[in-house]
Amino acid sequence: MIYLFAALATYYAALSISREDGPFAVFLWLRNRFTRDTWLARGIRCIVCVSCYTAALATCGLWAAGHVRAIDAPLVWLGLAGASVVLDRYWKR
Asked: Which range of residues forms the domain containing residue 33?
């Protein structure tokens, strides 16, 4: 059950950062900071890219809480990022 919540949190965080304005327009401000055509500017607007970053943070949180062993962390990271992308593709349909 904890992994389901982690996957949903990863999706929502990635969606918020890459597409929403956020509270006090903080995510909009963050995206506007990177206006030139660089890898970082493209990456902050890509939900797949941001899902990788937020999944890494979620995996670190799960590991710190004792829900993930260090040996399993890469699989959990990729699984959370993949679940986030699948959720995004599903909701786009």
From this structure: 2-92
